[in-house]
Amino acid sequence: MASYLVTGCSRGLGLALITRLATLPKTEVGTIIATARQDNSVRLTEIASASSGRVQMVKLDVTNESSVKEAVLAVEHQLQGKGLDYLVNNAGVSDWSPTGLEGMDNLNETFNVNVTAPHLVSRAFLPLLRKGDKKTVVNISTTLGSIAMADAFRALPTPAYKITKAALNMLTVQYAQQYADDGFTFLGISPGWLRTDLGSRRADLPVEVGAEKVLDTIQKATPEQNGKLVNIHVPGWETREGPNQYDGKEIPW
């Protein structure tokens, strides 16, 4: 039974990941730690209440180092001496700047959530991950953070999001290189363009599909993928026209 911790679970992909995890067999998924900055998500509370203790809610502001340290202690208590198998750094923010770089006035804030926070959380949970069997850390990224694909997404006015996700990809590589010999796998996953508050109703995929495919990718991850950025695989989307294909392959930097 693998244990999971997911950040940013009050809505969007994070909530969908917890919802999906709670439906999987107990022989496959054990303790599920759902973290959020606020503990007022009605749906998340409902899922936890119906899980017979399997889903545990932990308050965590990923940008606050004191909150991160307190969350580690809470998770350590809930795991009852066992290690953490999977950490999913999902919490993130985007921007909208119709005038492009001239209107980008929130780069520091976006960087703090999308890059610094995954570092703070990953670093703090390393001791519990070392005790786990899977030792896998997943950073939820995006093809918009690929420098090689930048031209395909030129028209999207989200410069801070693109810049910080590119930095997150490098953070993934740095962790992958440093902890490979310790048996860790650090992996970036692009969940696709999902119908969430961040992705909008015009997006390609229902968030439930994104969550299912992200978890499929996580559970099939191998040490050979350490430090890579990979796409989800959605049958029928492998050769779609446009920049978004969900073929399960490695995404170019």
Automatic annotation (TrEMBL):
The record ties this protein, via SUPFAM superfamilies, to: NAD(P)-binding Rossmann-fold domains
| Coiled-coil intervals, chain numbering | none
Q: Which domain of life is it from?
A: Eukaryota
Q: Which InterPro entries match?
A: Fungal_SecMetab_SDRs, NAD(P)-bd_dom_sf, SDR_fam
Q: Name one GO cellular component term.
A: cytoplasm
Q: Name one GO molecular function term.
A: oxidoreductase activity
The family line of this record is: Belongs to the short-chain dehydrogenases/reductases (SDR) family.
Task: Indicate what this protein is called per its UniProt record.
Answer: Short chain oxidoreductase
